[in-house]
Specification:
By secondary structure, the protein is an all-beta fold. It contains no helices and eleven strands. The protein has one domain.
Length: about 140
Amino acid sequence: MNAAPRLQQHGTVTHDGKSYSSDLQAFGDKEYARKGAGSWRSGPRQLVPLVVDGKAAVFDCRRVGSEDWGGIATTVYTYKRRMPLRHIVRDVRLWVADGTGLAVHSRIAIHEGGTIGGAEFTQSYDPDATPPEGAPTP
């Protein structure tokens, strides 16, 4: 997803038993994000780091099979992602479209001691998408 010039992502995040919707739109080096029906915030695009504290940020990668996701043939991968803040490790399951090589869905479990939450997102890549109306300019 780092390489996609335009990314639209929508999903649900659950933390400590509470859920909210989450939206992210990325355009080149800019991104726009919001929680629930809140206001959009904007800033420089946050790319996934490759190294955190001298260790691989993405590790234990596995191809686990093939599945149909919403009519799209996908290859499914699992991996662990080390986060720079609070040294949390997330378990990620990622569906990648066979035709484009782009992620179309992700499911994330967040651990801190025990599982404290998770997220599920659907990704799309509309080349004609525009920044959210009324969003601040980064």
